[in-house]
Design goal:
The protein is an alpha+beta fold. The protein contains ten helices and 13 strands.
Length: 313
């Protein structure tokens, strides 16, 4: 008899072994390509299929999946003799309207939860869109998600007290210079504008600045021999032009570096970032962050977030 009986909630239940085996093999191929030996081994380890599996049984199961509409590549030397699922007809189908609703739901939710919850939400949305097998929808969800592609191991490292205020070597994906190794002293993690940043001293720029955690590929080394004092401020150089030059009022923490008929460059020693950003945004389109690049990226993220709040999708 092609059935397996088990007890659940004090009730005797039975399941079709053939159906169960077929779904199990489909699950295995959805995860990654498998050799025939791998499939047989996993079937033998499963309590439901352990008594009814062989290479012939596995091959018949693969034929069953093909008959149901799956496209499965034949094993070859080029793919290490693995069966790979190319297509399956069981994908989740989401209309454009349903995608809009999902994205709006995520945006509304992200304003009410912590960054840790946002990571959970991002993981859930990734799983949902992978089920659609629709690359456009997968890319849309990935491009519009908060926090970016922050690596869990990077987050965990920066919440370890043993790394704060120490000299650290990072592998960093710079928007200007690409992948580079940089030395910093991390002070604290900040969550703003749906992004995680590390406030740090940069040895490259010899000043305090922000790094977006999603751009950090990995931590390469930590120097535990010396501990550095905590940061209190950082420098920003920005350019004003147009109406912003006429409306500019110098602050005590600012120095005018250059002034021409068409633009003005100002250096600011920033210790209250929120107030400083609000001040810059009042200039509208008549300002530009010259350096550091980390802060420029942060302003760009802030403006994108404002635009998203008015985007009808």
């Amino acid at each position: 008899m092609d059935s397996y009986e088990f007890i659940s909630n004090n009730k005797n239940l039975s399941v079709s072994i053939t159906a169960y085996r077929t779904l199990l093999v489909l699950k295995l191929l959805l995860e990654k390509g498998r050799t025939l030996e791998e499939i047989v081994r996993i079937l033998k380890e499963d309590p439901v299929t352990s008594k009814s599996c062989s290479k012939d049984t596995a091959r018949i199961t693969l034929i069953t999946l093909k008959a149901a509409g799956c496209k499965i590549s034949r094993p070859a030397r080029s793919n290490d003799f693995k069966y790979e699922l190319i297509y399956n007809p069981f994908s989740l189908i989401l209309t454009d309207e349903e995608m809009v609703l999902l994205l709006r739901l995520r945006d509304n939710l992200e304003d009410k939860v912590t960054w840790k919850d946002i990571i959970t939400v991002n993981s859930l949305y990734n799983k949902i869109t992978r089920l659609t097998d629709n690359q456009d929808q997968i890319d849309l969800v990935n491009m519009t998600k908060s926090l970016g592609n922050v690596k869990p191991e990077v987050i965990a490292a920066f919440f370890n007290d043993n790394i704060l205020n120490k000299k650290v070597l990072l592998e960093y994906n710079s928007p200007e210079f690409g992948c580079e190794d940089i030395y910093i002293v991390p002070y604290k993690i900040i969550y703003e504008n749906r992004r995680l940043y590390v406030l740090n001293y940069s040895f490259k720029y010899e000043s305090n600045c922000y790094l977006e955690l999603s751009r950090i590929s990995r931590i390469k080394s930590v120097n535990n021999k010396e501990k550095y004092p905590a940061a209190s401020s950082f420098y920003v150089i920005y350019r004003l032009f147009g109406n912003a030059m006429d409306n500019y009022e110098k602050q005590e923490y600012e120095t005018v570096l250059a002034k021409t008929n068409s633009y003005m460059d100002v250096k600011a020693n920033v210790n209250n970032e929120f107030s400083f950003i609000q001040r810059l945004l009042l200039y509208g389109i008549d300002f530009k962050i010259l350096e550091p690049s980390f802060f420029r990226e942060k302003i760009i993220d802030k403006i994108k977030l404002i635009q998203r709040n008015y985007d009808p999708w």
